[in-house]
């Protein structure tokens, strides 16, 4: 199966209590939860997703505010998968303050990470 699909550099799972999920569906979306969105099904799905363990999988507390969830995902992404792919040093960044790539503004990771960290979450409707 892995040969047919790309392997993710990072996976973020938002973990949330089923009761809070049902409340948010009803109040945020203004909808009645469908038959897949009842507490029992959500509890089973939560158990399955929380059982996924891998260094690339990050479990995020979905009960936090949107801004806190966004900040946590950005922090994990920027310091993890994005840094490993975009740091100018092939062996990774060992000391950003004395990094010649950062000092000469040629490190894609360094230039982009500040923008990502300072951005505000966008409301999706």
Can you tell me about this structure?
The chain has 125 residues and is mainly alpha-helical. The protein has a domain at 1-63. The chain contains five helices and two strands, in the order E-H-H-E-H-H-H. The chain has helices spanning 18-28, 39-50, 66-86, 100-103, 108-118, and strands at 11-15, 57-61. The chain has a two-stranded parallel ribbon with strand order 1-2. Helix 3 runs antiparallel to helix 5 (108-118). The radius of gyration is 19 Å and the shape is elongated. The model has no long low-confidence stretch (mean pLDDT 87).
Short description:
By secondary structure, the protein is mainly alpha-helical.
Strand content: 5-15%
Q: Regions with pLDDT < 50 over 5+ consecutive residues?
A: none
Strand order of the largest sheet: 1-2
Our measurement of the CA-to-CA distance between the termini, rounded to an integer number of angstroms, reads: 33 Å
Structural class: mainly alpha
Based on DSSP secondary structure assignment, what is the total number of beta strands? 2
Helix content: 40-55%
SS element count, helices: 5
- What's the Cα radius of gyration? 19 Å
What would you call the shape?
elongated
Mean pLDDT: 87
**Largest sheet features:** 2 strands, parallel
Order of helices and strands: EHHEHHH
